[in-house]
Amino acid sequence: MKLELYQVDAFSSRLFGGNPAAVVPLFEWLSDDLLSGIAQENNLSETAFFVKRGEYYELRWFTPCGEVDLCGHATLAAAHVLFEQLGYQDQCIVFATRSGRLFVDRDQGCVLSMDFPSWPAKPFQVTERVQRALGARPDELYFYQDFMAVFESEEQIRTLSPDMERIAELDGLSMIVTAPSEEYDFVSRVFAPSVGIPEDPVTGSAHCTLVPYWADRLNKSELRAYQVSKRGGELLCRHMGDRVKIAGPAVLYLKGTIYLEHEESCHT
């Protein structure tokens, strides 16, 4: 069995920026063990798999440690592959996922806009456990499915050096840290060592929580965000009540073939 494999740098218009994701189109679903094995072999933060079902596509995401409920950058990467490599002609792609139906529109140029759920977080007490994990005390702490720690300055976010073992012991899949910015509306970083991702380069799904917070705090619905990881990535966001728009470009890095052999033989 042979499968096509694409690797796309999402939330970047240049190679080696943004967040790399693998994308594997399928005709039918493979076993979960095989999907997990492919994701482990790819060894990227996410591998996206999709299957066409009439007018929409079923979409799933796997980290090297297992399946997740939502992933932004790999959704952007999957849409980029459909639009730019597989000849998808309509303006909007509909993905059926574990987080409901997601919509990706082709915007101007190479920018794609994703319609995702809004996940506003609730205030949470800043505990000593969280402070030790982060190596600094945030001004505010929130929780939805992940923790979100709010700091005073962008410099604090850039210089933060958390204890990954302690971060992994906290509730939730990841720790989001964020602060206001002079150049952007806000900046962020995301740490998810419990699912094999010490620091995620650019995290679309984290903005399901970041956008409603900053839209309320800044009293504006249109937001420019930057994730200040080593690779970095800019996200154009819009708050729409119970939904958020998260937009950015993507660029293809490689196209290849996965060879799945049930039996191997070696002749000498």
The overall number of domains is 2
Distance between the termini: 24 Å
CATH architecture of the largest domain: Roll
The name CATH uses for the topology of the largest domain is Diaminopimelate Epimerase, Chain A, domain 1
| Helical stretch tally | 6
Helix content: 10-25%
Oligomer: single chain
Q: What sort of overall outline do the alpha carbons produce when their principal axes are compared? A: globular
**Based on helices, strands and strand pairing, what is the structural class?**
alpha+beta
CATH superfamily of the largest domain: Diaminopimelate Epimerase, Chain A, domain 1
* Beta strands, count: 18
Along the chain, the helix and strand elements come as: EEHEEEHEEEEHEEHHEEEHEEEE
The share of residues in extended strands comes to: 35-45%
Radius of gyration, in angstroms, nearest whole number: 19 Å
Q: What is the CATH class of the largest domain?
A: Alpha Beta
Q: pLDDT under 50 segments (min length 5)?
A: 263-268
Mean pLDDT: 94
The major pleated sheet works out as: 18 strands, mixed
Active site: 46
GO cellular component, one term: cytoplasm
Keywords: Isomerase
Family: Belongs to the PhzF family.
